[in-house]
Cytochrome P450
Amino acid sequence: MAFEKITPLAGNVDKEEFVDLGIARGSRWKRLRNISSQGFTLSNLKLIMPIIDDSVKRLLEHLDVISIQDKAFDIHKYFQELSMDIISRVALGETESHLFESSYLALAIRWVDRLNIFPLYISLIILIF
């Protein structure tokens, strides 16, 4: 499984004080899953789908402009922007899309770097993709 590949980076997931859902096991995983699953009910997901749809459409508009140049580009930064735009609108209460205009992404990247939470970042990537 993917979790086991990153477990060495996170230390002993059975004894660490802070363990995220992506790498937790056993009863800790079950507890975290029960807490987080309440936010991901079908009715809640239906509420946020228009927000996700709008952010994706805005990203596609950016990608259409880039594709006209007919050269390779790094898609990673675009997915970062999309993810942060959706998170800021759904979880942080932004009412409009700020794709490529938000300071949240730079703040999140600095936060991840400062706290040295690489295992959390990797597990989020695994969960997202």
Q: What stands out?
A: The chain has one domain: 2-128.
